[in-house]
């Protein structure tokens, strides 16, 4: 739904191509946006431990096995973002969430 709405906005307001960027934490949104319109500038945003922890750093799950499963998934996601996912999604920029820039 987001991709369709964004595509419609870009069609209604062509000036957006020169003055905006589509950013998302979700690689599938960025990928689908690039598939819908290759002229849109896209960026993939990353927050370390986004699957296993909430934004304030507390664990997302109270179950021990579920928490560690998502920690492993976070490590895989981090590796894939830095090695191939950015290229697969066709992103123009790779962003990091503000709280992790100067810790």
TrEMBL record:
Superkingdom of this protein's organism: Eukaryota
An example molecular function term from Gene Ontology annotations: glycerophosphodiester phosphodiesterase activity
BP terms from Gene Ontology: ethanolamine metabolic process; N-acylethanolamine metabolic process; phospholipid metabolic process
GO cellular component: plasma membrane
PANTHER family: GLYCEROPHOSPHODIESTER PHOSPHODIESTERASE 1
Protein name: GDE1 phosphodiesterase
Organism: Dicrurus megarhynchus
